[in-house]
Amino acid sequence: MADTNVAEDETSNASQEQHETVDEMLARHRQEIKQLQNKETELKKAAAKGSKAEQKAKKKQVEEDVSKLSTKLKEKQLKELASQGFSSSSSSSNISKDETNEKKGDIDTLVRAIAGVSVTTAQQEHSKPSKSVKRREKRAKEEADREQRIKEEQSNVTSDRMVENQKLEKKLKPLGLTVSEIKPDGHCLYRAVENQLASLSGGASPYTYQKLREMAAAYMREHKTDFIPFFLSETESESESAEERFEKYCSEVESTAAWGGQLELGALTHCLRKHIMVFSGSFPDVEMGKEYKSGNGSSLMLSYHRHAFGLGEHYNSVVVVNNMTG
């Protein structure tokens, strides 16, 4: 947009240049510099929105854009001054001595103003950046680099998710199955089981996801000798005993949105006395509660996603293609 405005100004002024007096040219030059300064102010205001990282990135882009426009304007104005025989320190004999002396200061100021890569005063242009400015610039660069790395990582996550979903679909499709999406709120494992129970009953599930949490926690407490060895392999602490840590874990299972995994699935398969099948596009399929498996289609079917939503692990419900439920 800024380039377009400058181009339009150059076109509109082109026909005037051949008929301008020196006074008119200098006045126009000062007006052009002022317009660019105003444009820079507008762009900086527009860039002062969004997160700090976004603002820094936008500010950097504004500085680059203004630098290009300023350089272009400088070249144009110096060319016009040269066509009149002027430089920053001398004048042409084509202009009277009085007029030259009167306008020399204006020309020196003008040349200095358009000599830099940005629209600033000569003193600002030639002064060395302070340590604080250098630190801010360094932090801005580090933040911009971090944002770029995050974008690249997100791109990789998206790619991994697509590959994982394609493999899972290839596995489920021949079985006449498909994934029913579950809300990724920390309760996904329990919501997926709730969805499966509702599908089997043909109506509402006999247990809510919260009740399933409580059932899993209660079963784990009652059979802690079966679960603590697996639990200890995942946690370490010098200040608490194994039983204290296990009790705290069970409390989180029943009363928070803590993510559920294989321990909780193991508890649920016994609580519900159901065979559970977990399909995955990243790992081999897992069967739990084989002793409860029957031929009447009463198994609970879930899907495990390692790269879901860029959030990491996630569980969905797996249903028959023509029997999708909410």
From TrEMBL:
Segments for region (Disordered): 1-27, 39-161
GO MF term (any one): cysteine-type deubiquitinase activity
Residue ranges occupied by any OTU domain in the UniProt entry: 177-321
Coiled coil: none
Ranges of Basic and acidic residues composition bias in the record: 17-27, 39-79, 96-109, 139-154
Matches recorded under Pfam families: OTU
SUPFAM superfamilies the record matches: Cysteine proteinases
Record GO biological process: protein deubiquitination
Comp. bias intervals (Acidic residues): 1-11
CDD domains in alphabetical order: OTU_plant_OTU5-like (cd22797)
Family of the protein in this entry: Belongs to the peptidase C85 family.
PANTHER family: DEUBIQUITINASE OTUD6B, OTU DOMAIN CONTAINING PROTEIN
Name under which the protein is recorded: OTU domain-containing protein
